[in-house]
Design brief:
Distance between the termini: 29 Å
Radius of gyration: 22 Å
Number of strands: 4
Helix content: 40-55%
Largest sheet: 2 strands, antiparallel
Strand order of the largest sheet: 1-2
Structural class: mainly alpha
Length: about 280
Amino acid sequence: MRWPQKPAITVEDVVRACTPWLKKQGWDEEMAARLPELIGQERRYRAQGEAGALFALLHSEFGGQSQDEEKSRFTDTYDKAFVGGGGSKLYDALKAAAIYGCTVCGVAKPEQIDHHAPKNIFPLLALTPLNLVPACGPCNQGKGRYFYTDPAEEPFHPYFDDLGNERWLFARIIRADQGAVAEFSVRPPEDWPRLKAQRLEHHFSRNKLDRKFRFEASRHLATRRRKDARTYSRSGREALRLVLVEDAESVADVDPNDWETAWLYALAECDWYLDGGMNEI
């Protein structure tokens, strides 16, 4: 899974872009007065994120920010000025940075922005770009406004977490009536800390990634099987296996844990498919 770089946009940039709307609401002076506090929050967020201690920071402030008397001003500014108002260019830039797709599933187009720390609980981070991560609609809505207090369930943060280049996403091909389906699973590397492995397993199950990846695999197999049938017919089993491995390696060069990487390797290891199973689909 590949993620975008940390945004260069700052909370100060966001507030500046939203200032025309804030003036219309008569909130510009109040927001300007709170800006140093927001910048301080942003600096702590970055420092703790880079130190691998963001969960501890958010957990320490859980429940506190939601009592802020100006909570609604921060959330309204995000909803009405940043998303659809003067800040929309910055909003769109954050989404456009996710060139590898949704930062949760890696499959769908990131058409929305998710607050890593939910804005209803952490309103002082509602406008902080480091807290804003591109996501597809289903993944964003699936996460909702919930804040996980169990460190083993902490969502991965695309700007700070590193899932490495070692493979941890795998698949196997299961024969089904008039075809086959791919079943996906995660196997955290043995040298990963236990907590990181638990977070990966929770990420995979909580976001129903097996189901999403199965759908993509089935959709791609509908066209892939024709190409593979020609290779099998002309050159045989071993030639087909080598083509599948080569294609898997090509995808893995970009992302070793893309669903397609796991799927292609699974096809290359499936005796039924290599022996012409694609012709039964």
